[in-house]
Amino acid sequence: MSEIPDLAAIETMDATDPLRAMRDRFTLPEGVIYLDGNSLGAASHAVLAELQQAAGHEWAQDLIRAWNSAGWFDMPIELGDQIGRLIGAASGQTVVCDTTSINIYKVLHAALNMRGGRTVIVSEGDSFPTDLYIAEGVATTRDGASLRLSGIDAPAIEELIDEDVAVVLVNHVNYKSGELRDMGALTRKAHAAGALIIWDLCHTAGALPVELDRANADFAIGCSYKYLNGGPGAPAFIYAAQRHHDDIRQPLTGWWGHARPFAFERDYVAGAGIRRFLCGTQPVLSMRALKGALAIWDEVDMAALRRKSVALTELFIQLVEAKCGAYGLTLESTRDWTKRGSQVSFLHDHGYQIMRALIERGVIGDFRAPSTIRFGFTPLYVGYKDVWRAVEVLEDILRTETWKDPRFEVRDAVT
Ligand SMILES: *Cc1c(COP(=O)(O)O)cnc(C)c1O
Questions:
Q1: Of 279, 299, 319, which marks where a domain is finished?
Q2: What pLDDT shows up at residue 3?
Q3: For residue 412, what pLDDT is reported?
Q4: Quick count: other Cβ atoms within 10 Å of Cβ 160?
Q5: What residue ranges line ligand 1, CB within 6 angstroms?
Q6: pLDDT for residue 2 is more than 80
Q7: pLDDT at position 336 over 90
Q8: Across the chain, which distance is largest between two alpha carbons, in Å?
Q9: Does a structural domain hold residue 135?
Q10: Which of 8, 58, 316, 390 sits 20 to 30 Å CA-CA off 364?
Q11: Which structural domain range is residue 104 located in?
């Protein structure tokens, strides 16, 4: 590995950072180094302004008229197209709605319906749990359907894909290790076996360039409150390739997905295109927060974002290993930056206490059971000196063993 940069070199990296000005768009509190944008992105001034406008003016003054006058009704499609531009999707293929968990449910059923004779769902044993819980729920309600998991039924997901497989549900970046998969290669593998593929983009939308159309992906889902900074509980999204639109049948056939919602017809008729993934009334205030959050992306060069993300994670690994190597931390993420998302994870037997001690000192990451401490690097508002300072605090906590204080053992509900 190259020589460890000193503080002067790191200050130069910040001074020449093309994304540096973006930080001023966010409302981060003084003294906090926020390395948890992979779990809940930071608030921006634009988001707070949108909320004030939507609640304080449109709702308060225009009342129900705002569905038309403020364009509330069309937001799922409009915001979907905006997210589509960040994930390599031509317009009309992405819709913002509901939660990631609910969207996985809809898309899994749609994919199984499109592959009639086949019954197997392939996924990853180390996936984010909700993806597996939903897949399990879907499998138990469909005759003959079953789940095959990497790490359990075979070591690698590629080995599980054969002629019985209807659909592969896979993470682009693993939530714990940060491992980045090759979207094009796995999509080709699934298609060669006649299966469909659903990409979970929770840890890549807004974190690195994604090319769904180019990879010939079938479906994708993801959330908007992580790297997209939409706010707590912000609605999720669904992508479906245009070629599938007429064949999509999903089970949550609510009135918003109807071809003519305001005709109030008795029978369900699926709406055209991506709209048929909608179910019912959407959370307008959360949508408006997301609208504020998405505005910034028109100015962001995704290649520059990825370059900075890689530089931040490389620097963090290098500094932690140089300064904290003696304290029992093991790198969980890969060293190969081409296979790593925008986060770095280390393992430690007392990871929970260490993370609590870090948070008390203003360095906010998170903990994932049983022993992962996780640091997310959001290039829009994390700088190189933040990385330096975070490692200084981590080294201090480990060297002085302040993490051993009993107050750090008490488990919060959300870790
Ligand atoms: C964050 C995350 C989710 C979240 O699902 P919700 O329905 O929003 O709670 C799902 N899957 C993955 C991979 C995630 O990282």
A1: 299
A2: 85
A3: 85
A4: 21
A5: 99-101, 128, 130-131, 171, 175, 200, 202-203, 223, 236
A6: no
A7: yes
A8: 70
A9: yes
A10: 8
A11: 49-299
